[in-house]
Request: fold
Amino acid sequence: MRLQLKRVYASPADTDGIRILVDRLWPRGLSKAEARIDFWAKEAAPSNELRHWYQHEKEKWPEFQRKYVAELQGNPGSVQELIAKIGHGNATLLFSSKETRLNNAAVLKDYLETLL
Reply:
């Protein structure tokens, strides 16, 4: 199994495997047909409160990671559903943020890799 990250606005590729949107909100200006999403893991995304608090402010990154992992640990059902969807194949966690490193998908990928 291989997990990778990709902006949802990037073109889908055959190597993506299952394409999983890991944002709470649907990406602006993107149709469902264009996105080619296989599963929307809305419940595994950061809460609205955490998203609004973080605002992609780099100085908040360490605390965001800690708080988001705590949310994931407090929501094992959504994490288990996500793991079941991923299965044993390749999966691409899709995010809409312009910030390609310090975002929820990166935290989620690291967290899932500790469980798989």
